[in-house]
């Protein structure tokens, strides 16, 4: 698996092994609240995802998508989205390591996606 590092693969195997024994209850969409505990009732899954650093979370999002593991993708995207709640576009850009827009790109984005830039 060229896109999945060994430490990430270890977490994927841990998740899948547990999921085989205790399937994760699907996460509602749209989210019911902005907390992990409200959206994920199973303690093992709460502990699994909260014990992982941000870089590994992003690696797991990529791995779950690449390996087509919807429950892991849902869980990792949930924790990412919870982390984004209440943050401004600039803060999210920095977290995702997205290069700063040129003035022309920003003007276009502000025109096309006004809701993102609301203060």
Tags for this entry?
mainly alpha; 119 residues; 61% helix
Low-confidence stretches: none
Q: Main β-sheet, in a few words? A: none
Structural class: mainly alpha
Fraction of residues in helix: 55-70%
Number of strands: 0
In whole angstroms, how far apart are the ends? 42 Å
H/E element order: HHHHHHH
- Average pLDDT, all residues: 91
Strand residue content: under 5%
Q: Give the number of helices.
A: 7
> What is the gyration radius calculated from CA atoms?
16 Å
Overall shape: globular
Detailed description of the structure:
The chain has seven helices and no strands. Helix 1 (6-21) crosses helix 4 (54-66) and helix 4 (54-66) runs antiparallel to helix 5. The radius of gyration is 16 Å and the shape is globular. The chain starts with 5 loop residues before the first helix and ends in a 7-residue tail after the last helix. The longest helix is centred in the first third of the chain and has 16 residues, at 6-21. It has helices spanning 6-21, 36-39, 43-50, 54-66, 70-84, 89-95, 103-112. With 119 residues, it is mostly helical.
